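Hi U.,

Before I forget, here's the chain from the pilot set. I'm dumping it here mostly so it's searchable later in email.
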Amino acid sequence: MRPLAEIATAIDVAGRSPDAVAGATELLGLGEAVLEHWLAAHDDVPTAGAREGFRLLALHRQGAGGEPSFNACRETCRELVFHYNLITLDAAHADTARRLAMMAMVAMHLYLFISGKLESAKLGEFCCSSRPVRANAG
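Structure:
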C-alpha cells in the first residue's frame, strides 16, 4: 500500500499529466489508496469488488459501514468517478485539461478529508470542516 504521506504529492503530479487518460486513471487509483488507508486503520481488508463498475465506490461503501459521518465523502467519490468518465470517454475534448485539474482537486479533497478523519474522528459529523483538525494543531 502506498504510504499516505506520498499520496498528496502523487495527486499533484497526476493532475498535471500530459496524458489525461493516464492521469485520470492514476487519480482514481489514488482515491482508492486513500480509502484503503481508512479501511486498514479500522482493521478491515479492502474489497476487490466494484460498485456501479468502480472499486472506489465499493471501498467507500465498505468504509461507511458503521461510521455515519464517513458518508460526507460519498459525493466526493462519485465526483471523482464522474470526472474519470468525462476524461476517458472523450480524451480529445477541449475541456480535458480543465477536467483533469478538477479531478485532481476532488482527489485532494478526498485525501484531506480522510487523512483528517484519521486524525480526528469528529471530522464530518456536521460537515467536512477541518475545525477539529485545526483546533488540535495549535
